[in-house]
Write a structure and sequence with these properties.
heterodimer, A: Alpha-Beta Plaits, 6 domains, about 45% helix, B: about 80 residues, Transcription Regulator spoIIAA
Chain lengths: ~775, ~80
């Protein structure tokens, strides 16, 4: 627990929980930026974002007493600060690995904190090793006036505004040749006092101060309303000092993270100001925004308000333009305030109110606009606890149950009172309405759970990078359609199967770089992870330009493993043979590698797809590559089932597997040699399988006398059969809940549901049943 | 005592920490015409300096501290631009 003079930070359970959530997000962001940096090391925005993420991470971690975590993050932040200020020179390209290693370790530590409440033993040593590695990556601290240090972006623009008097003061102090001129740009956070910062105190300790501008807000808030503990000043200073002093000052200011930056400025200040860089600088953005805002104010107050009197449209337009300009400058808060000042009811719109809001937005120090990165997500989204959405869906589910219960009761009413009875007819009508509403509500609730597949896709670039290194393959991972949306549970369940498919491509499909070169392919293989919507399905494809699947090999293996017999193997096409990779036990790897190739993986992928109501297929082009395609339902839908009874047990059969339900007279049943039975139906002979035997229920005593058998003709995988049951029940629309807990992964069942009467019922996986 | 009222002026003495900022603001509001005597002030936290900058009261004396004299004083004596 840390107490400081201006507040008390109390470590509570919910604070820690929040920290864990935010820390994981920050780690993900920093990882994304580091990977992007590898592709484009000059991307200053990436560097800045990664630096801020690490800085925030370190700051939050420091609230809790996890010293190894804080010191490791601190060292990583230092490294990124050095990168940001252009002090790494050639070492800049190699920082991704050590920093990613830090992020990995931090993730593991976060997991330990979450489950055990503390860091694991050995954390201190691990931290020390990582810190040493980071320092090594930075090289010697080469603050050497003669060394070839890569310059960062040109010094901040305010340097160009130094007056002649200030330049003279600087020149007066720069006596010896070896003195460095540092420009210090310090914009303290408004709540920095609560972190123990004293900005002026910091400046006081800087040696060789030649210029120190204190920028104050214009105007100051009214004295009586002043919040004395809110820091409202900014500092701009130039100081001259020796390289050793400079190193010390740098490290002190580095503790302030993004609040401050230190740049070395050319000693000869008589040169004309540096040309403005192509990218809009802080001042350019701010100047532009200022100009736009002032123009809106001029328009609103022109002629004492005459220009906009009785023209609410123009007031709204002014507000809109001002808000957009503020957003462009990165100040979405001020933008929101300006928009709020413009009443939505045109009759109530007040030009003065909007004018005041714009004036307020103009008043904070100009340099603050543009230092906050714009929020790419804008302000239109609502952050909702997913538990609340789940609750809504649970309620929708229960409504469906209640609706089914009413259907049940309706049937009984029909029986007792007669179908023509007015009351019964009325109830039926209302039930129809209820049915429609329940379905629509359920759909709307489920649509709330749609998330972009990006959530799971974003974990792959890092993993593919590691895997390709391990396997000695060169690969370029391309992700397409990551904003495609699907049900949250579905998206989360995709991680393992997709990971396996990517591993598989990397391990078996993609050739080593030398081989690729030899056969005329590009050295780096292309691995595509793609998502898109097609009608009511989400399609996810994993495509590689590797070897493709060897149909002959698969055929042979399938026969070897007893999946199919030699005759069938010969008769199927290559395309069909390749699909056999999804059968259990087939693996075409010559050696079972540590990473994949055990043959169970592809089977698990198919099972995972089917558990969600989807399918998986593969298309292979020999020597050109393969594409694996997952076709998944867009959302959790209501399933139609047919209820059947065996003894006192009720089971559900998915309606899309049912071809017909019929009564087969005893006479039509043919007995076969091994005790099996069959019957003729529509010019075909179908096996007659007692469902009780499949479910391993005791054999029934068949009552003597000729009786019809109740048979459901089902089909799956191109096979058809008749399932014998004791009684055929209703068709129902239900919510299918996958088996969970101890029963999860059990074969033979798609899930459970509750019937209208309240009975829990297992829904059978007909494909498994027929096997 | 780093902050006190001597009946005619508000005195800042020694090393004025952040907590004094609130007291300073109260004194400044309670005595609208009183000057601020900082001739014995050796250092002041940014929070305290902010109150000085916002209040713009007449100042008596020059602070003992070089930093305050060189960099803060000019801000307090330049007339505000409208």
């Amino acid at each position: 627990m840390r107490c400081c003079a201006y507040g008390v930070a109390v470590v509570s359970g919910s604070l820690l929980a929040q920290f864990l959530v935010e820390a994981r997000e920050l780690i993900q962001e920093a990882s994304d930026d580091l990977l992007a940096l590898e592709r484009d090391p000059e991307d200053a925005e990436c560097i800045d974002r990664a630096f801020r993420a690490l800085h925030t991470l370190k700051g939050s971690a420091a609230l809790f007493a996890f010293a190894p975590l804080t010191s490791t993050l601190h060292a990583a932040e230092d490294l990124l600060a050095a990168l940001r200020e252009g002090r790494l020179g050639d070492a800049a390209g190699d920082i991704a690995d050590p920093v990613l290693a830090v992020l990995d370790q931090a993730t593991r530590w976060l997991d330990a904190i979450e489950s055990e409440g503390d860091l694991p033993p050995g954390a201190t040593e691990a931290s020390a090793r990582l810190v040493a590695r980071l320092r090594g990556a930075a090289g010697e601290d080469h603050h050497d006036a003669t060394g070839p240090v890569r310059q960062s972006a040109s010094p901040p623009d305010w340097v160009a505004t130094l007056t002649e008097g200030e330049r003279a003061a600087i020149r007066g102090m720069s006596g010896e040749r070896s003195r460095l001129a540092l420009a210090i740009t310090y914009d303290p956070d408004p709540d920095c006092f609560f972190h123990g910062d004293d900005p002026l105190g910091q400046m006081r300790r800087v040696p060789g101060l030649a210029v120190c501008r204190i920028k104050v807000p214009d105007p100051w808030p009214p004295l009586a309303e002043m919040d004395v503990f809110r820091c409202r000043i900014c500092l701009r200073a130039v100081a001259l000092m020796s390289p050793e002093e400079a190193a010390e000052v740098r490290s002190r200011f580095r503790l302030l993270g993004p609040q401050a930056r230190i740049d070395e400025i050319p000693a000869d200040l008589l040169l004309p100001a540096a040309p403005s860089p192509a990218r809009p600088t802080t001042t350019t953005v701010a100047a532009f925004t200022r100009a736009v805002l002032e123009e809106q104010r001029r328009m609103l107050s022109a002629g004492g308000g005459a220009a906009v009197r009785g023209q609410p449209g123009r007031i709204a337009a002014a507000a809109r333009v001002a808000a957009n300009a503020l957003r462009f400058a990165g100040d979405s808060e001020a933008a929101a305030r300006v928009e709020a000042a413009c009443a939505s009811d045109p009759a109530l719109r007040d030009a003065d109110q909007v004018n005041r809001a714009i004036a307020e937005a103009l008043s904070p120090t100009v340099s603050r606009i543009g230092t906050v990165a714009p929020d790419p997500r804008g302000g239109r989204l609502l952050r909702v606890d997913s538990a609340k959405v789940d609750r809504l869906i649970a309620l929708a589910d229960e409504m469906v149950l209640a609706r089914n219960a009413i259907q049940h009761l309706l049937r009984r009413a029909e029986q007792q009172l007669g179908a023509g009875q007015e009351l019964v007819r009325g109830l039926k009508d209302q039930h129809g309405t209820l049915e429609r509403l329940a379905r629509e509500w359920h759909e709307a609730a489920v649509r709330m759970r749609m998330v972009p597949v990006e959530e799971v896709f974003r974990r792959f670039p890092r993993l593919v990078r590691e895997l390709s290194r391990q396997l000695g393959k060169q690969v370029e991972l391309v992700i397409e359609g990551e904003r495609t949306e699907a049900d949250r549970d579905l998206v989360e369940s995709l991680f393992e199967p997709l990971l396996h498919l990517l591993r598989n491509s990397l391990d078996h499909g993609i050739e080593p770089p030398e081989e690729r070169q030899r056969i005329g392919k590009a050295k780096a293989a292309r691995l595509v992870l793609r998502a898109f919507q097609e009608a009511d399905r989400v399609i996810i494809e994993v495509e590689d330009d590797g070897r493709g699947v060897d149909a002959r090999l698969v055929r042979r293996r399938a026969v070897q493993r007893g999946i199919i017999d030699a005759e069938r193997a010969a008769s199927i096409t290559d395309a069909e043979a390749v699909e056999l990779v999804f059968a259990s036990g087939v693996s075409t790897a010559e050696t079972v590698s540590d990473i994949s190739g055990r043959g169970i993986g592809m089977d698990a992928v198919r099972h995972a797809a089917e558990r969600t109501g989807g399918t998986v297929s593969i298309r292979s082009r020999p020597r050109e590559g393969s594409t694996i395609r997952l076709s998944l339902p867009l959302s959790v839908t209501l399933t139609q089932i047919l209820v059947v009874r065996v003894d006192q047990h009720l089971f559900g059969l998915p309606l899309d597997t049912v071809l017909e339900s019929l009564r087969v007279p005893e006479a039509r049943i043919q007995k076969l040699r091994d005790g099996a039975e069959a019957f003729a139906q529509n010019d075909r002979i179908l096996p007659l399988i007692p469902l009780r035997r499949i479910l391993e229920l005791p054999a029934a005593d068949r009552a003597t006398g000729v009786q019809d058998r109740h048979v459901i003709v089902v089909q799956a995988d191109g096979q058809e059969a008749g399932l014998e049951v004791d009684e055929i029940g209703d068709r129902l629309e239900v919510i299918l809940r996958p088996l969970g807990g101890l029963l999860a992964g059990m074969r033979g069942y798609l899930g459970t549901t509750l019937l209208g009467s309240g009975r829990a019922t297992l829904v059978l996986d007909v494909r498994e049943v027929l096997r | 005592m780093t902050l006190r009222w001597d009946g005619g002026a508000i005195l800042l003495e020694g090393e004025c920490p952040a907590d004094e900022a609130e007291g300073l603001l109260e004194l400044v509001l309670a005595h609208p015409a009183a000057p601020i005597d900082w001739s014995r002030c050796r250092s002041a936290h940014t929070a305290v300096v902010q109150v000085l900058l916002a209040a713009r009261r007449p100042l008596h004396g020059l602070p003992e501290d070089d930093f305050l004299r060189r960099w803060v004083l000019p801000c307090l004596t330049v007339s505000p631009e409208t």
